[in-house]
Specification:
Layout (H helix, E strand, L loop, with lengths): L4 E2 L1 H6 L5 E5 L3 H6 L6 E2 L5 H4 L6 E5 L5 H11 L3 E5 L2 H11 L3 H15 L1 H14 L8 E5 L4 H16 L5 E8 L4 H13 L4 E5 L2 H5 L6 H19 L4 E3 L4 H15 L8 E3 L7 E3 L7 H10 L10 H9 L9 H13 L5 H8 L10 E3 L5 E3 L5
Parallel strand pairs: 1-5, 2-3, 2-4, 4-5, 6-7, 6-9, 7-8, 9-11
Antiparallel strand pairs: 10-11, 12-13
Helix pairs in contact: 5-9, 6-7, 12-15, 12-16
């Protein structure tokens, strides 16, 4: 009987015309990054959707656990099914290890300064100027999570630091909240490939939040922010930079209205309430996510998505992760659906928090948290 698993090396030797490559992860993970040529199907629908039994059905998930059990079920139904050993992470590690570091660094930088200058570097610089995010003498901790957004931000800062007339310092900070060895390797290899000199420090955040039943992602995010502030201050920084972009901003505005019954936005800069003298800045505030994806794909880059133990556990158990049903995902889909009829809507959402007329709202809170009503002076 044929073995159930195929290694990444064996995958490279297969004839693509004889293989149906199936990604069993959720749609968000697939969109974030997948093996070229793969189709995205759920474990429940794969047998119904794939009818050709004379081809090799090669399945993969995040780490090869779910795909192995699905391959066994397909074998019982007469399919010639296999599971990719180690899953997408194994392919990703192999993929980035094969890339030429000096060539990749040069290509990535030239794509920012030339091909995508209008979409990436120009709005990056514009946001810094418009929102006054950078001053002479600043020391900025550029926080890299391992995803496409923060990694691009690091390259943008690197190029700005190289050519800017403003004198400032930069530290490229990577916090390890408890990543698996595979994910840590991906982050370090990407940094090396792109020529980013990262500073890594370890925490046990993933272990701390794993048993929290209510809003573990919220608690995790708060803890991560605190650790980043603390380490940045220890390194002599006065600012931390996060990789939130334009699409994050408009999604946050709608999420506040739909789920929080409030009008608010994700600010381009914020003074820390708990770390005196520290600020948080978001210099990618005016950059569109689709342009970040285009830069990623043009350079054939691959990054990690959420890599916490909760995600790994849900993958192993075959359950849905918090990403699948998240409020942000629903809002993203809502925006995408209405933009089809009117592309101006995204800009209108973004501009809405700049055009608030206090005389036309029922009530509002001032900077001290004091609530004022429209009829206070009547």
């Amino acid at each position: 009987m044929e073995p159930l698993e195929i290694s990444v090396d064996e995958l490279a030797d297969l004839d693509s015309d004889e293989v149906v490559l199936v990604d069993l992860r959720d749609a968000v993970s697939f969109e974030y990054g997948h093996i070229p040529g793969a189709v995205n199907l759920s474990a429940e629908s794969v047998c119904e959707r794939i009818k050709i039994k004379d081809k090799i059905e090669l399945l993969y998930c995040r780490n090869g656990i779910v795909s192995l059990s699905v391959a066994e079920e397909m074998r019982e139904k007469g399919y010639r099914a296999f599971s990719l050993k180690g899953g997408y992470l194994a392919w990703l590690r192999s993929h980035i290890n094969d890339m030429d570091t000096p060539l990749s660094t040069r290509k990535a930088e030239e794509s920012i300064t030339k091909k995508f200058r209008r979409e990436l570097f120009s709005p990056f610089v514009k946001a810094i100027k418009e929102y006054n995010l950078l001053q002479s003498g600043d020391k900025i901790a550029v926080c890299i999570s391992g995803g496409k957004d923060s990694t691009l931000m690091a390259k943008l800062f690197q190029l700005l630091h190289r050519h800017s007339k403003i004198s400032f310092e930069v530290v490229y900070l990577v916090m390890n909240p408890g990543y698996s060895i595979e994910n840590s390797e991906v982050i370090m290899r990407n940094a090396k490939m792109l020529g980013i000199p990262i500073t890594i420090f370890d925490t046990n955040i993933f272990d701390s939040v794993f048993d929290i039943e209510k809003s573990p992602c919220y608690v995790c995010a708060r803890m991560r922010r605190g650790y980043l502030y603390s380490k940045a201050k220890e390194l002599g920084c006065n600012k931390i930079a996060l990789g939130h972009h334009y699409d994050d901003v408009i999604e946050t505005i709608l999420m506040g209205m739909l789920y929080g019954a409030q009008m608010q936005t994700m600010m381009p800069k914020v003074k820390s309430a708990n770390f005196e003298g520290m600020e948080l800045i978001r210099p990618m505030y005016l950059i569109r996510e689709n342009d970040i994806k285009r830069w990623r794909d043009y350079n054939n880059l691959r990054f990690i998505q959420c890599a916490c133990k909760f995600t790994d556990y849900c993958t192993a158990e075959g359950c849905k992760t918090s990403n699948t049903g998240s409020k942000r995902k629903k809002v993203k889909e809502l925006i995408a659906s209405i933009v089809k009829d009117d592309p101006q809507i995204e800009q209108n959402i973004f501009k809405s928090v700049e055009n608030v007329n206090l005389s036309t709202v029922i009530s509002y809170k001032d900077k001290n948290g004091v609530k004022h009503r429209f009829d206070d002076e009547w």
